[in-house]
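STRUCTURE REQUEST FORM
Protein name: DUF5717 domain-containing protein
Source organism: Mediterraneibacter gnavus
Requested output: structure tokens
Priority: standard
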Amino acid sequence: MKNKIKRLSKGDFHIPQPEIIFPETRIIMRVGEGEMYKGSFSLQNQGEGTIRGLVYPSSFRVRCEEQGFDGNPVNISYTYDGSGLVPGHVEHGKFTIVCNGGEYEVAFTAIIEKPFVMTTYGKVQSLEDFKKLSFRDPAEAEKLFRSRDFYEILKYEDKRIQALYDNMRKWELDQQALEEFLVGCKQKEKIFLTLEEESRAFISLRESRKDTFTIKKNTWGYLTIDVRTEGEFLSVEHTKVTTEEFIGNAYRLEYIIDYTKLHQGSNFGQIILESPYEILTYEIVVEKDVCREEERRERDKEFASILKRCLVYESGKLDLNTWCEESLKKIEHLRSLDEDNEMYLLVHAHICLLGKRFEEAKWILESYNYNRFAIGKNVEISSYYLYLTTLLSNDSIGTRRVAEELSKSYMKHPDSWKILCMLVNVDSEYKIISERLRALEHHFYEEKTRSIWFYLEAFRCFREKSSSLKKLGVFEVRVLYFAAKHKLMTKELALYTANLASQLKSFDRYLYETLVLSYGMYEESMILTAICTLLIKGSCMENCFFKWYEKAVESELKIAQLYEFYMAAIQPGRVNKALPRSVYLYFMHGNNLDFHKRALLYSNLITYEDESSEIYAHYRDEMEAFAWNQLERRNIDPMLRIIYKRFLTEDAMEAEQIKALYDICHAYEITTKVPNMKFIHVIAEDGTITQKAPYTDKGARVFLYAKTDRLVWESKDGRHYTDSIPYESKRLFYELRYMDICKRYMNSLKQNRQEEKVEELSLETVRKYGIENYGEEEIMGLCSRTIRENNYECDDFLTYVCFEMFKRKQFDRVILTYLANYYCGATTDMKLLWREAREYEVHTQKLAERIITQMLFSEELFGEVPIFEEYYEEGAYFRLQQAYLAYMSREYVVEERRMSRSIIDIICKEYEKGEETIDICKIAVLKYYSTREYTTTVRKTLKKFLQELCGKQIYFPFFLAYEKEWLIELQLWDKTLIEYKGQKGSRVMLYYQLQKENSEAVDYATEVLTPMYENLYVKKFVLFSNERLKYYFKETIDGNTYRSDKECCMKDAVFGESGRYGRLNDILLSEGSEKEEKMKAYAQEDAIAAHMFEQY
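Status: completed
Returned output:
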């Protein structure tokens, strides 16, 4: 660049200018995130010679290996630094190439691409791509899911998705986990199963059978289905099925019915399909010998109704005749259905005996074929016959014999409760109630008898003599429960039972039910006391027992711990009235209730008790302390909500209490119908598991602070599930005034954290995060401050940032001064900077020098005159000044470029100062003033320029426009000058013809012209008044010839001109004697001149 300026300053313009071409005019860079992109572009000269110059990238992220270049062709290598940029970022910029062939721009676009993983199906860059891969090839998708490369795909997905995957890597990464991940990311819907049919019935099955039913799924994906059966006759070949085994969206499940394991009647079975999300049931019913079974069942049912109605009769709610009539109809019907059934016959006789129809009974019994020695005879039926005969006659001897016979039979069959019941009624040994009960009790424990008739026999003993009930063992309780259940209990026996129950030390469920049934018959306070006492001893706090505690409290019974159990059993949601006043009074002096029950007590008091009452005043401080204590423990339920609203005020809250309030304001109750859930994990946006709440039948309580919090379910088998588990959420506490308190407090905390986290703005942070992430005014302030702190020292990145701010109209005088000193880039950018700097009166000499130098080097000057004028005024570098003046003069003379008056004045001024002025500058000045007026000072300069140039035989047609005296002195006055502008490197020939007046035309003469200056050709002729010049030019270049138009030139005749040619013209214009006299005078003067002036 310096060499070219030096040559230009000396007027050497014989510097070949390259003809630049760019194979690539736009560059697209696809940069991987955080990567360093390497690329190159080239330029070349179509002609000969090397290309020299500089390249300026517009972005600080672009670095060229060499800023300068020299060669042909030229390859410019560069790098683009993508660090800190996120995918999707696009930067448009340019390379500005300033060279000896001109100034050019090559645009570039840098695109930051998402990271990707290459699979056999192509790039996977997003979750959408991964979903498609999962659909096409689940195995490869699972492999990628397990790989740490999967993080590359998730890098620019939602942070919640990244957090989910982070945690899933800690749990499991199998196909089911992949399914959960896709569902959790909303990339697919959860798989639901449906059955084409929900049940199947088989009638008259005669052998084992294999069958199928169809399971359908709603969408693609992976799911494991556990298959199990209920019913011994059912089995399946596969106990585990996956959706991989489905054909399309359907699967046919095979099952087998084993005929050998069927029982008579209806066999009910189920095939249960259990997935992580649901349980489906396919019901199977198989009928075997249904008709006969149904008939037997109907007979048993009718026979049982006879016994039930007998119990109603025993309870006194049915008279004997009515019962007999009903029972006789039923037994007769049964006998007609089964005529050979001996039991029906004997029962028929028994009913007649009880109804005092002795003749009918006798007739029936006589029809019975009794044989004590018959082989295979049912001993219980034979014993039953003997027992009935004793009821028919009053023969004591016969009764004794029957008793002996029954005693023998019982000894042989001690497991028969029926024989025992008959024996105790006929044997005199059992006439004592205690003996009878002893026998029955012994049989109860030994044989585990649970028959209704057996219980009835025992109860009759207690009913007959209540004092025989001396304890409440299992036998007694079961008998009494039977009596109470069938409304047989007497009031005396009920009170007796209640008294004994109060003395027990442990809870008995059957005894409790007995007392409850007894209280339903006889509402006695003694029985109620026994019920409550028994419940308290059993620590029964379930809500189902509350009604007994409530009755006892309302009855004001004096039972130890009654009020504690009353509060323990009460269900808060069902309390819609004030608690009994006795409850308030009981707990006034302290209590050991848990916080739920205390909250119930206090909230009820707040809701229903007048604040001015003594009870409320006594509780007030206690309730307020309780409210603050529970708040700090983060407890919340509907009862606590009432208490909080009454006592929590902002004035009384400290920081920790506001934090606690913030927590409970974001408390939720989560419930689901999906079974086997064990825990709920709450995952924050950053992936941290903030909570792990145990899940119970009542649900779980969690704190959800943001919409980005995610719930993940953990089942009892340790697997984790995301959005595939449907659930219901209920906010436990939401009050606007408390939310406002929390919001103000959290905003102050957030602001403090942000202030702590704010990283001091510096050039390094701007380089790291990019200009676009900060405010323009903020960046401008940083630049201005940094420049001053560094005492205006140059820094490449600072220069880049300052110019970016300048382009965005964000600058001050400091930034302009710095840029004027150091910025170097595209000429248009530097000129824009120069104009702004001048408006701010910033010193621009260095900037102007760079602009002028660069424009001269590239030979692309436009709009630079004001810049040069200011540069000249501030003191220009002499060599650069001379180069500029020379170049501008040449452009004016050779290329007809417009010339500013100021530039002409500078040339003249420099000449007057005695500075060396090259010929082209002189020619330009002469050309400029050839058509303009000039001052006296300039007149002297112009004359000198003419003298000096003509002395070098340099002349142009416009010289003839100057003063006559100068032209006469320079011997140009009587000359004719013609000019031709050719192309560089061409050969120019002049073809001319001088025609004299009244003479014949002559042939054209030819002459090879030499350039007067570069490609300007000038030929000097002397034309007399009777001569005419016709001429044209012929130019040859690269084998091609071009001819100009013919032109004609003649001299205007003027008498009396001085000089030799003037005298000759006068002779030519004269006629006759006057011509002769002028010829003689010319000859005389010529001889004198030849004598006086000797030629050396």
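Reviewer notes: Residues 763-969 form one domain. The mean pLDDT is 87.
Form closed.
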